[in-house]
Write a structure and sequence with these properties.
Elements lengths: L5 H6 L15 E15 L6 E12 L5 H7 L6 E7 L5 H10 L7 H4 L3 H10 L5 E11 L2 E11 L1
Antiparallel strand pairs: 1-2, 1-4, 2-3, 4-5
């Protein structure tokens, strides 16, 4: 069955609430960082964050084959990975840049402010291939697939 476009979904007769899709199985995936990064502020504390989208390409051996078969094809599946820019967590963003193959210690970056340098590096992540580790995290009465780590591909 062909994939429905967004317009097809909106034009179809309403037949009740949409069913929640299954979660991507836990484990490690090879991904490509897609599109420009998103910059924003958290709603509670106003903390600056950078968010990156990953297109899943291939599961690694730690992904349960039965769960993956139940989930279906990974074609077009994306996950978001968010980094909050705080003194205690900034190293995670810098590690992600290194996993994307970026030089985080270049003389050019050292001439910039910390935020300018990280924005410049964030702009260089598009199309980078990295491994992401996916876990399931409960939030209230719902569970979400969440990127909990990255590694160089």
């Amino acid at each position: 069955m062909p994939t429905k476009s967004f317009e097809d979904i909106l034009d179809a007769p309403f037949d009740g609430p949409a069913e929640r899709p299954p979660l991507v199985p836990k484990g490690t995936y090879l991904t490509t960082v897609i599109g420009p990064y998103e910059e924003g502020h958290s709603t509670k504390k106003g903390t600056l964050f950078f968010a990156f989208n990953h297109r899943l390409i291939e599961p690694m051996d730690d992904v349960d084959a039965d769960e993956l078969a139940d989930y279906g094809a990974l074609d077009g599946v994306t996950l978001s990975n968010t980094y909050y820019l705080t003194p205690k967590s900034l190293y995670r963003l810098d590690e992600f840049f290194q996993h994307c193959g970026l030089n985080t210690d270049s003389p050019k970056l050292r001439k910039m402010s910390g935020i300018e340098a990280r924005k410049a590096m964030a702009e260089g992540t598009d199309n980078a291939q990295v491994y992401v580790v996916v876990d399931h995290e409960a939030n209230g009465d719902r569970t979400f697939a969440r990127v909990v780590g990255t590694a160089k591909a």
